[in-house]
Design goal:
Helices cover 37% and strands 27% of the residues. The protein has helices at 15-25, 36-45, 94-111, 149-153, 158-169, 180-194, 201-210, 250-253, 255-271, 286-293, 324-331, 335-346, and strands at residues 3-7, 52-56, 59-64, 67-71, 75-80, 90-91, 115-120, 129-130, 135-141, 172-177, 215-222, 225-235, 238-246, 275-282, 298-300, 302-307. It has a seven-stranded mixed sheet, with helices on both faces. The two termini are 37 Å apart.
């Protein structure tokens, strides 16, 4: 059969629904391959998207989400996909995959983008340059049997179980809702404390609007005040806690341990989740250590590249020495000021 590559934005009505049905039905596809991400990226950050699909005999046989992230500070990148953990072409035939890769390479050349990036789990695509190990994902099968707490506790190590019990003894409780305002307030303080620029609140709201019924917010309270909060996505039988953080008080209260325990417990009991996807973290960071200590084994992500003449693999990494002074300054910045200055910066750090 002849493979035709079409742009989602130019396809007739119903193409987005067909795209998403393909993603849900294809094991290699991820939550980050769903079509609503295109609108989220465009509306939240102003980056143009180029979502393409392969079609054979009138049926979708492959999808490739792409967006171009071009900023003065952080360079020019055509990626699948910015602000997402996983990406790259997903296809059910070799012909469809080859057509999508060729489409991406032609688009890179036409746009003049120096770097084309695919964010892969299994390994680098043939002919692409794999970056040195930096990003890792953390995924684990979870077992939830009704209200059997002892059974649920086996999902996390003994030390973390003790921290969860400690947190509850200190009076922690949790709620599950769609409170984006509380989530963003806690998250903004958390990333400021780490020296990172914050995503704008409109981005969090756009994600909630784009995935109705497939998201929730878990917030941990101490004496009625929120001390930790996380945005979770739900896809197939997976739960993906994606943007989370805690206040200064969270660590002493074991609030983060309680929060992720509650995410795991609720997702299993209320949504039938069997896989907990903790998302990506950079090697050598606190988040990497936390996830590993929570009983998850790191799995290297293969972010792979096609580079134009003179281009290099991007190194927008907080461990890069050139960012140390900026990070130190950011940690001392008032949260209100960080919330103003952060969003224009973070649009180039997807």
């Amino acid at each position: 059969m002849t493979v035709t590559v079409r742009l989602l934005a130019e396809a007739p009505a119903g193409a987005a629904e067909a795209w998403n049905r393909f993603v849900h039905a294809t094991e290699a596809a991820s939550f980050f391959h769903l079509s609503p991400w295109a609108g989220v990226i465009e509306r939240s950050f102003g980056h143009p998207t180029h979502y393409a699909f392969a079609e054979e005999d009138g049926a979708i046989t492959g999808v490739l989400p792409l967006a171009r992230m071009k900023t003065m500070l952080f360079g020019d990148l055509l990626a699948s996909t910015p602000f997402c953990v996983y990406g790259g072409p997903v296809a059910v035939t070799e012909e469809a995959k080859a057509a999508l890769v060729s489409h991406a390479e032609a688009l890179q050349k036409r746009l003049g983008a120096p770097v084309l990036e695919f964010r892969r789990i299994e390994g680098a695509d043939e002919g692409f340059l794999d970056r040195p190990p930096l990003y890792y994902t953390f995924r684990k099968t979870i077992v939830i049997t009704g209200d059997d707490v002892k059974d649920q506790e086996r999902n996390i190590p003994r030390k973390q179980r003790a921290e969860v019990r400690k947190g509850f003894k200190k009076g922690l409780s949790s709620v599950s809702n769609s409170d984006i305002a509380t989530l963003h307030r806690v998250y903004a303080e958390s990333v400021r404390n780490l020296g990172s620029p914050v995503f704008p609140r409109r981005y969090f709201q756009a994600l909630a609007d784009a995935f109705p019924g497939a998201h929730d917010v878990t917030t941990v309270l101490h004496e009625g005040a929120p001390v930790a909060s996380v945005l979770n996505f739900h896809f197939r039988e997976q739960v993906l806690p994606y943007y989370g953080g805690g206040t200064h008080a969270a660590r002493g209260l074991s609030a983060n341990e309680v929060m992720y325990w509650e995410v795991m417990r609720r997702a299993g009991n209320e949504r039938g989740a069997t896989l907990f996807d903790f998302g990506r973290s950079k090697a050598g960071t606190g988040a990497f250590a936390f996830k590993k200590n929570f009983g998850f084994e790191p799995e290297q992500l293969h972010y792979c590249y096609r580079l134009g003449p003179g281009a290099a693999i991007p190194d927008n990494n907080p461990n890069n020495p050139k960012y140390r002074a900026m990070i130190a300054l950011w940690k001392r910045m008032p949260v209100w000021l960080a919330n103003i200055l952060g969003p224009p910066l973070v649009r180039g750090l997807g």
